[in-house]
Amino acid sequence: MVSSQILVGGDGTEATLEDGGLRLVDRSARTEIPLAVVREARTAGGQHVEIVLTDSTVHRVDGGNPTAATAFVAALTAALPARRDPAGSARVTVTPLAPPEEVKYHPKYRRRQVVILGLFLAYVGYTVWVGVARGGEEVVRPVAAAIPLAIGGALLFFAVHATLVHFALKRRGITVPASFDFRTKDGAAWYKFTDADGVERSGRGKNRGPVARVSYDPEDPRDYSFDLSGGSTLRRVLPFALGALPLLAGGAFLALLPFLPV
């Protein structure tokens, strides 16, 4: 029986050894390797683990730490069958976690970049104006205020984005079944589903059993949800909104302090 192990790399990659074979997962793809096509596994100082296939193809994963890397190589070596398949990479299955077409920017992301850049330049201009109108020593206040304003703005942005996604999915979302795929080290469950165009996609969420329902936006499939109830969205959005308000209020007060009556 194969000794199941999970090698967690410092770069977020995962290598899982199970009875069914070897699974490598990074941010872009999931790779399934049958043990029969693995010729050997090796590590140099525990920094990386190299998995050499029978056709000499090498898959290199981060070792995490030397002890874990050495133990993983030992377990994998012990699990290798006596008879190997020379097919090598021909039997390896690679499933993209982010389809290539999703790399293209949706127009809304370009608009958001323009808005963020505009706000940044406006604030830089305001800081310069403070220095000119109130003296160089007063510039410290808007500079210091930039920290809570930036954090508060990021929190508010997430809250607004999640709310807009919720309403967009309510208005035009397409719901399809999703099957459980794998779980990552942070406990998140990944599901795979096929959209209306026949493209297989992956979604990250809570464990909802072997089969779940997912709603995605056909205009931008990167926006999806496993729970479209108003209560679920409110519980996710409200903490960010409540955290953003005092930061934005405090940052705005500090930024405007040079012009407020003392």
Key terms:
262 residues, alpha+beta, five-stranded antiparallel β-sheet, 4 helices, 39% helix, elongated
Termini separation comes to 76 Å
| β-sheet strand percentage | 25-35%
Q: Which radius of gyration do the C-alpha atoms yield?
A: 25 Å
Q: What's the pLDDT, averaged over the residues?
A: 86
Biggest β-sheet: count, sense, barrel? Answer: 5 strands, antiparallel
- How many E-type strands? 13
Describe, in short, the structure shown.
The chain is α+β, with helices and mostly antiparallel strands.
Describe the fold and architecture.
The chain has helices at 66-79, 107-134, 140-172, 230-256; strands at 5-8, 14-18, 21-25, 29-33, 38-43, 48-53, 58-62, 93-96, 174-183, 189-194, 200-205, 211-217, 220-225. The radius of gyration is 25 Å and the shape is elongated. The mean pLDDT is 86. Helix content is 39%, strand content 29%.
Outline the secondary-structure elements.
Elements: E1 5-8, E2 14-18, E3 21-25, E4 29-33, E5 38-43, E6 48-53, E7 58-62, H1 66-79, E8 93-96, H2 107-134, H3 140-172, E9 174-183, E10 189-194, E11 200-205, E12 211-217, E13 220-225, H4 230-256
Antiparallel strand pairs: 1-2, 2-3, 3-4, 4-8, 5-6, 6-7, 9-10, 9-12, 10-11, 12-13
